[in-house]
Design goal:
alpha/beta; Rossmann fold; 10 helices; 13 strands; about 20% strand
């Protein structure tokens, strides 16, 4: 019998994409409320408790309220909001985080889906910290650019709907200027850092796609590691993972640029190490930038939720994603 999946918030950007992925499958059944009952608390409570798994695509407070409605111990939850991403009782929904994370997700009744910026940053930072190449107390800086779909419906309208009151024709915008982006605690915790990373996000005039960058002065790290050392740690950590691909140094060294939309429509995360091995004539000060490329609505949201759902239901991890 097919597992019953309820997407609470299925008309939002992430919910629509999850629904589209699941509607093509015969091993799960998506159950829904009629449009006129979506805000009916009694109806939502009833369907939440009747689902085998609920995916919450809601604002933080609404996600907490939805969890509080669930009394059925058999109803499992994936929360795509920020509400539970640092909660100790929720499994962090990045199966590739470490050797036991996929099993932890499979065994959990409560899984928090990572943020797109955070997943990319943690994917870079965690293996390097775990291997001792990047000290946990290192002053980490992260720069990132995303397509405007990452900002939700209001931002999408501001870039696409000329009739919207806040419509803009700008090509690029840096934001989060308070340096207190909501993904920072998640990055710090799951990256294994002792200090808050300095995170600087931006948005470009394209719908989907994301690049996250962590620059490193290699000479400032213990033992002055080489770019090959960084790459080796990442390659070993993600070896044989179906969705995380560490691009060979010989390939990245020949690249003249990186396109943020290059893996759109996939559940893939690509990691690169770009290096200046000498730092300039007459010096030996190595520099590197580790970059992550992904679809912010794929591996960064809906695809990741489906991957976690597959694990939680005992289905093939890659089902519906390759």
């Amino acid at each position: 019998m097919s597992a019953k999946i309820f997407i609470d918030g299925e008309v939002g950007t992430t919910g629509l994409q999850i629904r589209a992925r699941l509607d093509q499958r015969s091993d799960v059944e998506v159950i829904s409320l009629p449009e006129d009952r979506r805000k009916d608390s009694a109806a939502r409570s009833e369907i939440l408790n009747s689902a085998d798994l609920a995916v919450l695509c809601l604002p933080d407070d609404a996600a907490r309220d939805a969890v509080a409605m669930i009394e059925n111990a058999d109803t499992r939850v994936i929360d795509a909001s920020t509400a539970h991403r640092t909660h100790p009782d929720w499994a962090y929904g990045f199966p590739e985080l470490n050797a036991g994370q996929a099993d932890a997700i499979a065994a959990s009744t409560r899984v928090t889906n990572p943020g797109c910026y955070a997943l990319s940053s943690v994917a870079i930072i965690h293996p390097l910290v775990a291997a001792g190449i990047l000290p946990a107390d290192h002053p980490v800086t992260i720069n990132a650019v995303s397509g405007y779909s990452g900002g939700g419906r209001k931002m999408i309208e501001s870039f696409e709907d000329k009739a919207a009151p806040d419509y803009t024709d700008e090509a690029f915008r840096v934001y989060g200027l308070s340096l207190a982006h909501k993904h920072v605690p998640e990055i710090q915790m799951h990256g294994g850092l002792t200090h808050r990373p300095l995170f600087m996000p931006s948005v470009g005039r394209f719908s989907q796609g994301m690049i996250v960058q962590m620059p490193l002065q290699l000479w400032s790290l213990p033992g002055s590691p080489r770019a090959e050392d960084l790459h080796g740690v990442l390659a070993d950590h993600y070896r044989d993972q179906p969705f995380v691909k560490v691009i060979a140094l010989e390939d990245s060294s020949g690249m003249a640029g990186l396109q943020p939309e290059a893996v759109n429509g996939t559940n893939e995360l690509h990691l690169y190490v770009f290096a200046n091995k000498t730092g300039g004539e007459g010096t030996d000060e190595g520099q590197a930038v580790v970059m992550a490329l992904l679809d912010n609505l794929g591996k960064g949201a809906s695809g990741q939720a489906v991957q976690n759902m597959n694990l939680m239901l005992g289905l093939g991890e890659t089902e519906g994603l390759l």
